[in-house]
Design brief:
Distance between the termini: 44 Å
Number of strands: 5
CATH architecture: 3-Layer(aba) Sandwich
Length: 142
């Protein structure tokens, strides 16, 4: 598995939710912040993209899927789906939801094996998540 040199690294955050989670725009805004920050960053990992699937499912509607990490050879990418506790999400403020989402993204990055995501790139992405979270937190608080 090798990434072509001129291939742009893709990073997506796409929530998997039940209809009753409230405003679901936070993950889309978070993704846009991350994309903007990493737009010109250099990555040396063999994968060309990461799909993060924060899963926020009301167990009263449907059981949440198990956490997973998947490696897709056809597009040289990794997808990670980790659950966020629905009841915790529901009772959290927007700022707390932002922290839950950022923690989910960091935990997802930790789940990816080093053979796909090199430690140097993982650390870059942690910093990107931290920066995006800080920017969004200041917007939420204002």
């Amino acid at each position: 598995m090798a990434r072509k040199e001129n291939t742009k690294f893709r990073f997506l955050v796409r929530p998997v939710t039940t209809v009753n989670i409230g405003n679901g725009n936070l993950s889309w805004i978070f993704e846009e912040k991350i994309k903007f920050i990493i737009d010109n960053a250099e990555f040396s990992s063999p994968i060309s993209g990461i799909l993060i699937l924060p899963t926020i499912i009301d167990r009263n509607i449907v059981p949440p899927p198990p956490d997973y990490v998947g490696y897709k050879k056809s597009d040289n990418s990794v997808s990670v789906g980790l659950n966020i506790d629905f009841s915790l999400w529901q009772r959290s403020s927007e700022l707390e939801r932002l922290a839950l989402l950022a923690d989910n993204i960091r935990d997802s990055l930790r789940m990816i094996k080093n053979r796909y995501l090199l430690e140097v790139d993982r650390k870059k992405l942690y910093k990107v998540v931290d920066e995006a979270q800080a920017e969004l937190a200041s917007e939420v608080q204002s």
